[in-house]
Amino acid sequence: MGFPKLNEETGIDALNSWLATRSYIEFYSLSQADISCYRALESAPSAAQYPHAARWYNHISSHEPVFSDIPGDTSKTYQDYGPELIERPSFGPSENDDNDVDLFGSDNEDDAEAARIREQRLADYKMRKAAKPKAIAKSVLILDVKPWDDQTDMVALEAAVRGIQRDGLVWGTSKLIAIGYGITKLQVNLVVEDDKISTQDIQDEIESFEKYVQSSDITSIGTGYDLLNSIYSPDGHNFQVDYAVKASENGGTSIGIRCNEGVVLALEKVAVSKLSKPGANKRIGSVDGHIGVVCSGLIPDGSSLVERARDESHSWRQTFKAPIPTTDLASRLGNHMQVFTMSSSLRPFGVMAIIGGVDTSEEIGVDGEVGSGPACGAGGKVTGKKHGGTFLYMAEPSGQCLGYWGTAAGRGRQTAKAELEKLDLEGGDKMTLLQAVKEAVRIIYVAQKDSKEKGIELELTWISTVDGPTKGRHVEVPKELREEAERLAAKAEDESYDDDEDTNKKDDDDKMEE
User: Fold this and answer.
1) What average pLDDT does the segment 217-231 reach?
2) CA angle 325–377–370, rounded 5-degree value
3) Which terms are listed as keywords in the entry (predicted)?
């Protein structure tokens, strides 16, 4: 270890190579190692032949007046520094040297014993891990089973459902819940092992009991798959979306009816206070004058969605110089709602939005085709196609947006949909706009019959074609017409109640005669 003689070429060459990547002999600052090597040189190295050594020599010589103040060990010579170019003579141990005495045993023996212990511990750990039971992923679910009508034997229905027995399936408590017209649905809790049970298979088997079961719905209430919006359950559910649907069903019942003469939107508003001002706190919003949007569910979410619809309408009008078609607005709202189902930092909208509108059937000159964006670039001469008629859509928390002739949302959704299905709405030519207003009010009254809420206020709007009463604009139904529709709906409800009483009395008389 160390430099050869620095007054010879081999030594200077070794010093030059050593300093090729260093500024100093040792470490990163001037020390006594540099002074020792400097003094060992008889003269400055040739800058042409030994540039690194010459650079170092000139730098060290500039500190010659303060050599005594430089830190380091002054007892060492230049041979104590540098590369491994020479080997110092190795002398064997003396006769009195005790270093060859093994006082603590062989290192090899220690390494072998340590390796044996380590392997034994790893084997024990693997054995314990293999014997430990694996965690079983379970989901706690609620199953809703809907019968065909009020004549269905609910006891037999429940017995059939509980008769489904599988490994990994445990049935829990159950109850009957009224859904209207004397019809009750079965709601039962169950626990399933996710690796063994598919909820879709359970539903398919339940719905095979066609004598009793009309449909079934299953939702989660206690599983890890509902913690984040960006997680799917093993059977493909996004439970946060399901919960958003439940939130929308806590709002007032909303209805949309479409016919060839226009669209009617209706909503029942629950009075939050006796001091609430009638007619205030509107829940049905207008968009661009010819479209109405009604939301059932969380009121702030609905307000936010209506504002988004107005922004989309404004953007469309600025771009195409024409009102936004109802179809395009509904599609954009659906896309906006769907974005909120894709990130764990967002939550789905807790509303269902019914979008109704009447588009003009006149040809509109725009840059491209109405509803499809510019087709020929700025300054083009292509005129818009005829794009008109009445439209009705519903956007759900999942982002799904479908067209309807009649649809409903909110707490009375099931009852209202059943009533809408009784009407002959398809085609839109079998019902006038005035009839649609009266039917919408009647269905709202029917849907709220089983509701425990009191102080219901009705909000009612309509949009007619350009030759109708509203001239293609979305406005409130006149007070006189609304009150007349409410009077007829209340009368129909009373008559229905009397008919039910007569039927029940007749059944009781028949039983007494038997």
Assistant:
1) 70
2) 15
3) Elongation factor, Proteasome, Protein biosynthesis
Confidence grade of residue 243 (pLDDT, cut at 50, 70, 90): confident
In whole angstroms, give the CA distance from residue 18 to residue 45.
Answer: 14
Question: How much is the pLDDT for 363?
Answer: 42
Residue-wise burial string across 448-483, b where 16 or more C-beta atoms lie within 10 A, e elsewhere: beebeeeeebbbbbbbbbeebbbebbbebbeeebbe
d(CA 399, CA 292): 18
DSSP string, 228-263: STT---TTS--HHHHHHHHHHTTSPPEEEEEETTEE
Choose which CATH entry (3.30.1330.10, 3.20.20.10, 3.30.70.60, 3.60.130.10) describes domain 138-219: 3.30.70.60
Q: Are 259 and 426 in contact (CB under 8 A)?
A: no
Task: Report which of 340, 476, 454, 440 is spatially closest to residue 397, judged by C-alpha positions.
Answer: 340
CB-CB contact of 39 with 15 (8 Å): no
* pTM of the predicted structure, to 2 decimals: 0.57
Domain at 248-368+378-499: CATH architecture:
4-Layer Sandwich (3.60)
- Kind plus residue range of the DSSP H or E element containing 206: helix 199-207
Domain ranges of the chain: 9-80, 138-219, 248-368+378-499
Q: Is 184 helix (H, G, I), strand (E, B) or coil?
A: strand
Side chain identity, residue 225: Y
